[in-house]
Amino acid sequence: MTKTTKEKIEEIKNNGYQLDFGNVFNHAFENYKKIALYAGLMIFVFSILIGILIAGVVIFTFGISIINEKSLENLKNENVSDVFMLVYVVGAIVLSCLLSPFPAGLIKMAHCGEKDEEFHVSTILEYYKAPYFKELVIATLLISVFTTGLSALVDYTGIKIVGSLISMIVSFFTFLTIPLIIFGDLKAFDAIKSSMIIVSKQPLVLLGLVIVSIIASMVGFIGCCIGVFLTIPFMYSMYYAIYVAIIGIDSENEFQ
């Protein structure tokens, strides 16, 4: 009888799990080679569209004067009103929530590549539908609000680097939330909690894999900045490989 994701998480909670760094890395790299070009192109196109959208919203909200020399000087000197900062923070959280199905689509693309199935633009946009969209948005909102609130609270002590460190730690312990939602069919809160349980059992190995994936994703900056769009997909292949190595994806749980 096939175990459910919740049963696997409970078993991991009680007994832990083994994870081989080399096997997971090789799996991620082989998967990356299958999706690199198409995924990189999608990231590039969507980055341009999002950039245009953000610029349009900023200009519409604050006026074209926001980009003049005096305004930039005020921003540089941190003479920014509390209202502006509030709008910025809220806007960043809302944008993160609305974009949360996009990385989910990239992870699903990694799964399609693994199965040698065709993937298209529709694969990237697949999770902008119920019930995944709601759970992805809720999970992103919970993590973003918690991280932002805690970081802001710590920043008031005057040690800003601590706030950034907290954000990175939270991001690390929750990085499996998305695959747990789309492959494990977990609700947002359960996915966050389960991700923290999984990471806490093998933090050093997983940290090493995540750091390697980040470094590999940034390699594109060396030759040409645009090359980073072709290396970023490695991170999503790594997330997929880690999830498969720990939880696995049963055929009956492969969502279409």
What does this structure look like?
The chain is mainly alpha-helical. Helices cover 75% and strands 0% of the residues. The chain contains 14 helices and no strands. Helix 7 (132-155) runs antiparallel to helix 8. The radius of gyration is 20 Å and the shape is globular. Mean pLDDT is 85; it is low at 252-256.
Topology, element by element:
Elements: H1 5-15, H2 21-62, H3 69-76, H4 82-99, H5 101-114, H6 121-124, H7 132-155, H8 160-173, H9 177-182, H10 188-201, H11 203-218, H12 220-223, H13 228-231, H14 233-246
Write a concise synopsis of the structure shown.
The protein is mainly alpha-helical and 256 residues long. The chain has helices spanning 5-15, 21-62, 69-76, 82-99, 101-114, 121-124, 132-155, 160-173, 177-182, 188-201, 203-218, 220-223, 228-231, 233-246.
In terms of structural class, how would the helical and strand content be classed? mainly alpha
Low-confidence stretches: 252-256
In whole angstroms, how far apart are the ends? 23 Å
Number of helices: 14
Number of strands: 0
Mean pLDDT: 85
Describe the global form. globular
Write the H/E string, N to C: HHHHHHHHHHHHHH
Q: Determine Rg (CA atoms, Å).
A: 20 Å
Relative strand content: under 5%
Range of helix content? over 70%
Largest pleated sheet: none
Assembly type: single chain
